[in-house]
Write a structure and sequence with these properties.
Structural class: alpha+beta
Number of helices: 3
Order of helices and strands: HEEHHEE
Shape: globular
Number of domains: 1
Largest sheet: 2 strands, antiparallel
Helix content: 25-40%
CATH architecture: 2-Layer Sandwich
CATH class: Alpha Beta
Oligomer: single chain
């Protein structure tokens, strides 16, 4: 997909993430060469994330992008926003 196509696809999907319980932030990502795309999500809890990453979510992304998504979990003990630092 071209950069413009990816951006358009990301913009179209953004509203579906706006009111997800527990989602604090999502950043869409695309490698400069277009070989990899995805997102970084900041969730209130792992349980909130796991409630979203179900079989229907995986199928929807596989159909849209032609490959099955992978999910990795990381802890984020410190978050820096321009106006504040949050420590978990």
């Amino acid at each position: 997909m071209t950069a413009a196509d990816v951006k358009s696809s990301f913009e179209a999907s953004a509203p579906s993430y706006q009111n997800l319980p527990g989602l604090m932030r999502k950043h869409y990502l695309r490698a400069e060469d277009g070989s990899v795309g995805g997102g970084v999500y900041l969730w209130e809890s792992r349980a909130a994330a796991e409630a979203v990453y179900d079989d229907a979510w995986r199928q929807r992304l596989t159909e849209r992008f032609g490959t099955a998504p992978t999910v990795e979990y990381f802890e984020s003990p410190v978050t820096v926003d321009p106006d504040r630092i949050t420590v978990e």
